[in-house]
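Hi support team,

I submitted a single chain yesterday and got back a structure, but I'm not sure I'm reading the token output correctly. Could someone confirm the output below corresponds to the sequence I sent? I've pasted both exactly as they appear in my results page.

Thanks,
R.
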Amino acid sequence: MPKDITPPIPLNRWFRDLKSVEQLRVTLENEGFKQAVAILKETAGPSYASLQNTEVDSRRLAWYAGYRDAFNDLEKLTKLPESGTSSINNNNEWTHIE
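Hi R., thanks for writing in. Yes, this is the structure output for that exact sequence:
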């Protein structure tokens, strides 16, 4: 039986905590953090030298996409929804973060 995936904190509660949103924004704007993100993305990204075979390439690209998605989703958590926190859907999946 598949397990339902739920965020550890509902998004509407996250966006109501403006202090946490601002703390995350400050962290993501930190130059050391930005440099670490850039290094991880560059290291995980594909290159001509890293292309080996279809299976290895697929895993490497999936790993790279995971880094990009994670950092992009963190950025999205620092931006309040346009219409305010009252309209945030408390969905049980992460797919609503776009």
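A quick pointer for reading it: The longest helix spans residues 54-76. Let us know if anything else looks off.

Best,
Support desk
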